[in-house]
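Onboarding guide, step 5: your first structure request.
Type a short instruction followed by the sequence, for example:

Predict the 3D structure of this protein.
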Amino acid sequence: MNTNRQSPQGKPQTQNNKPVHSVRIGAVKAAIWENRSGDSTWYNVTVSRSYKDGDQWKNSDNFGRDDLLPLAKVVDLAHTWICDRQAGG
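The system replies with structure tokens like these:
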């Protein structure tokens, strides 16, 4: 199911309920979201870190020192995936 809404920049966008692709290294994840307006397509990326609080898994957008290298790598892989997709790959 798609929902139409305005982006923070005021541009119309369509956002799916699920990312079109995700990259995970350990607890760090990059989720790639595809947005469309007319014949334009663009991508946004959200990053998160999973952690366990008691018996529940939770997500955070805060990263510690040991998360920074996996964070850099998942962002790099997300960038590569988006560039490949935009190049028709």
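Each response can be followed by summary notes, for example: Residues 1-14 have pLDDT under 50 and may be disordered.
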